[in-house]
Amino acid sequence: MRRPVKVFVILIPLLFLVSASFADTAAAPQTDAWRYSAAIYGWLPSINGDLVYPVTGTGESLTLDSSTILDNLKMTAQAGLQARKNKWSILADVIYMDLGNQKSATATLPRDNSLTAEFDVGMKSWIVDFDGAYTMTKSDRNETQFLFGVRYLWLESSLGISTDSAQLAGQNLALSADVWDAVIGLRGVLALGGNWAVPYRLDVGAGGSDFTWQGMAGIDYGWSWGGAVLLYRYLYYDLGEDSVMQNMDMPGPLLGIRFKL
């Protein structure tokens, strides 16, 4: 697997300026002063993809379909901030997830054999989007921004197996991924009238992964102090054939509250 893109490391100290991935509901008048907002939310995706654990001493791997076992969310923390001035925005999205489960499933063993056993899987992950955005069009009804930035994925997983297989007896299998990607896309908001609006985002990227893309859209209801959003979010990664997790996709609903600072 590719190493992270080192140049992006210099962006980490700027994370205190970042925001959630959805836009403000109304096209506010331009001002020379910086404006800030914060958001907390819950995104509950399903995780689909192959977990590929290297088997010690064989040079080969055991493959387990994550969708058959990773359905127990132990902990999640998801939040963001936004800084905005005139046509420019600095924003990001920060997600931490701790998942795991123990259940019977079938895995693919080296040399295309299969094994049905009790698997105990644990997985922790950080996903961080850090972006800049520039307003291309703006009216009372619609605002569209060009988006550019980076996405970071950190993933670590362990696997315990209850089996009589001599090949796997006594093994503690583990995998990890550490990937940076450059992304570009569009984000914006369409006002529906009153306090209602439709925020949206679509981006694509590559770098540490072969390809990644993300899309989200939904409904936002605003108040003077902030607002509430209900979105559907989809995140996809093609990490490559040599990666520890291949073709990972994460679809699911997102419910959030945003605050003006």
Could you describe the 3D structure shown?
With 261 residues, the chain is an all-beta fold. It has a single domain, classed as Lipocalin. 0% of the residues lie in helices and 69% in strands. It is built from no helices and 12 strands. It has strands at residues 35-43, 48-55, 60-65, 73-85, 88-109, 113-138, 142-162, 173-193, 196-207, 211-223, 226-238, 245-260. Strands 1, 2, 3, 4, 5, 6, 7, 8, 9, 10, 11 and 12 form a 12-stranded antiparallel sheet that branches. It is elongated and about 70 Å long. The chain starts with 34 loop residues before the first strand and ends with a strand. The relative contact order is 0.22. Mean pLDDT is 83; it is low at 1-28.
CATH fold-level name: Lipocalin
Specify the structural class: mainly beta
Specify Rg, calculated over alpha carbons: 21 Å
* Percentage beta strand: over 45%
Question: What's the CATH class label?
Answer: Mainly Beta
The share of residues in helices is under 10%
Overall outline: elongated
Low-pLDDT runs of 5+ residues are 1-28
- The CATH homologous superfamily name equals OMPT-like
Number of domains: 1
Order of helices and strands: EEEEEEEEEEEE
Quick overview of this protein structure:
With 261 residues, the protein is an all-beta fold. Helix content is 0%, strand content 69%.
Summary keywords:
261 residues
Write the layout of secondary structure elements.
Layout: E1 35-43, E2 48-55, E3 60-65, E4 73-85, E5 88-109, E6 113-138, E7 142-162, E8 173-193, E9 196-207, E10 211-223, E11 226-238, E12 245-260
Antiparallel strand pairs: 1-4, 1-12, 2-3, 2-12, 3-5, 4-5, 5-6, 6-7, 7-8, 8-9, 9-10, 10-11, 11-12
